Amino acid sequence: MTREQRLVLAIAVLASFVAFLDGSAITVALPAISKELGGGLTVQQWAVDAYLITLGSLILVAGSLSDVYGRIVILRAGLIGFAVASVLCTLALSGEFLLIARGLQGVAGALLVPSSLALILSAFRGIEQSKAIGLWTAFTSAAFLAGPLLGGLFVDLLSWRLVFAINVLPIAVTLWLIVRLKFQDVRAPNAAIDYPSALLGVIGLGAPVFALIEQSNFGWSSPVIWLPFVVGILCLALFVRRQQVTADPMMPLALFRVRNFGIGNVATVAIYGALSLGGFVITVFLQETAGYSATLAGAALLPVTVINIALSSVFGSLAGKYGPRLFMALGPIVAGVGYLLFLGTGVKASYLTEVLPGVVLFGIGLSMTVAPLTSAVLGSISERQAGIGSAINNAIARIAGLVAIALLGIIVGTGLDLGGFHRGVAVTAALLIAGGVISAIGITNRSVPPA
User: At 450, is the pLDDT very low, low, confident or very high (cuts 50, 70, 90)?
Assistant: First the structure.
């Protein structure tokens, strides 16, 4: 790699690292947060979903902002905004204040992920691009999976509040690297921001998620629940309709007619919904029911991080050479079988015999999946469409996690006892296996179209 390519890859990895690390580190702090601020499972769900709502609904807007103002400009704004919102999280004295701050973090996070991947796509070509995506995937996945361990150390040794300070160092380093990067920023001359679509997307996601989380408190017969749910669904329908008729859609629906892009995003819904649901139920169950400390609960998934760092770039290169279909089909199924092994876990959850085997198998399957999935989705469209394609795929991944956490109360009941845990891991396994089956049937190894 050239000096510029190394800097681009480092910036892209660190910027995404910030968003993914914070999104997963909070999971291990949820019991401590609800213990101090109250609210039980509902506050725990909202602490995750307040971030994912704004992140998922604004990623597409962030893609438009990058076109208008430039990727580096938006990346820098996202990093500074994330730092400010993180400080607000550490100062929260109530659940409501924390949730507002988490929503602001999601706004800033939405500026980071698509811009960072778009930088890679503009700086690398061919097989080198597949390797770079593999490295980006490995380290961002490692951030997502290492977050609980770092969060657990902070919770046990310091305070759950300082979990939100984890990202201060990577933010500072990334801003310094951006100053060093001599990179011609890209702006689209006629780009515009579709504010009506953005508003419809936020309401269309936020209102149904509110209903799904709060239905256990109010019941579906309450207008507090069914009215936001109906309004949200209508807004989603209007959002899709607007994308069909507007001259410059925020989410070009024609992209979904490209086979690997469309099927890859369907697989993304199943796989990333499973990742969010599975990580939540394991981390919280190990603390609240099995009696693990926050650090040990966070360390439980550490082998997945090690396996991903070791193997993701390898599978990314293999997918670039042989095509993504085999890896996208086999990987999620292996990961799903790993989650099925958790069904043998008892109340005490012996780590070596009941937790570790499933963790290792899940880690191998995940490392086979993520880089080939990214390559399949973005490799199926032209370079000109790569920015919006990465934004759409990232939005769908975050929305899948958002909905999975919103459905948590329906899946596990009022708490994560042993029965609730078994239901949670069974649904996670089913989603992963479904993602593998979808990929086996729908994904092809055809090369990217010229335009």
Answer: very low
